[in-house]
Amino acid sequence: MLGAKRIEIIGVPMDLGASRRGVDMGPSAVRYASLGDRIRSLGLIVVDRGNVPVPVRESVEQAAANARFLSVIDGVCDQIAEEVYAVLRHGGFPIVIGGDHSIALGTLQGIKRARRRTPGVIWIDAHADINTPATSPSGNVHGMPVGLAIERGAIDPARVVLIGLRDVDPPEKTLIRQAGVRAYSMTDVDRQGIERIVTDAIEHVRDPRFPDDPIHVTFDMDAVDPSEAPGTGTPVRGGLSYRESHLAMELLAASERLGSLEVTEINPILDIENRTAKLAVELILSALGKTIL
């Protein structure tokens, strides 16, 4: 975790990027699962910066059908970027809690601004999220943050790794190849094992010019199998197991290169006794260095 001792939590109660309602309550669910206290138990300082304000869906215009609410989402992401920038510039470790995955646009913008270059990104998700308004079959922006971040120069596709894919739109398959993004499906996880894939991903996102640069990890809870994480809006069977998910985060912690973290798509309306939010907290702790022994 690159020596950072102060963890700063940024909540983003955003559901504008998704068609299914409820992920706007994700930050509250994670806080209710004792995120702050659990992190403090690791001997770390915790600052909760509260929530970035997000307009209520009913109060804003839907705008273009091929990228619903994009202008409003961009406005929220500008505020996320400011929060992330502030945390990083004074030496903190930002944890961004969503909210739908469109929030990643703001997180990535803030990291690039603070680091003055694009970050290496490990994107753990059942979906590729590399659609654009021109290719998206739904118009939901939470399926576009990788594609839009590439278009806007917030990330270098050669230093992005997608892990856990199992629901990819046909145009996205072409976009992944064209962009040069490295992608691992669940078939790859089955064949190679999560340890090898995460280890390879950590090395792949390294910039040879700046080999000690921090890695950003964004973890969509639908990457985990719905039997373990039922509270997400776009569940897909056959996902990462409980232990595979934890091992991925433990390996990232052990790399000592993790510099920022984002967890998204927690939907308490669809959850069972807050299980998904509790798992999100456990995974965050693993990423911050909590070990079994």
What does this structure look like?
With 293 residues, the protein is of the alpha/beta class. It has a single domain, classed as Arginase, Chain A (3-Layer(aba) Sandwich), CATH 3.40.800.10. The protein is built from 10 helices and 8 strands. It has helices at 26-32, 35-40, 70-89, 104-115, 145-151, 170-179, 186-192, 194-204, 242-255, 275-287; strands spanning 6-12, 45-51, 93-98, 120-124, 160-165, 182-185, 215-220, 258-264. The protein has an 8-stranded parallel β-sheet with strand order 2-1-3-8-7-4-5-6, sandwiched between helices. Strand 4, helix 5 (145-151) and strand 5 form a beta-alpha-beta unit. It is globular and about 50 Å long.
| CATH topology type | Arginase, Chain A
**Under the CATH scheme, which class?**
Alpha Beta
- Find the structural class using helix and strand composition: alpha/beta
Number of helices: 10
Taken in chain order, the helices and strands follow as EHHEHEHEHEHEHHEHEH
The total count of strands amounts to 8
Measured between the Cα atoms of the first and last residue, the distance is 18 Å
Largest sheet: 8 strands, parallel
- What quaternary form is this? single chain
Percent of residues in β-strands: 15-25%
Q: Look at the structure and give the mean pLDDT.
A: 96
Give Rg in angstroms.
17 Å
Major β-sheet strand ordering: 2-1-3-8-7-4-5-6
Can you give the helix content as a percent range? 25-40%
Count of separate structural domains: 1
CATH architecture annotation: 3-Layer(aba) Sandwich
Low-confidence stretches: none
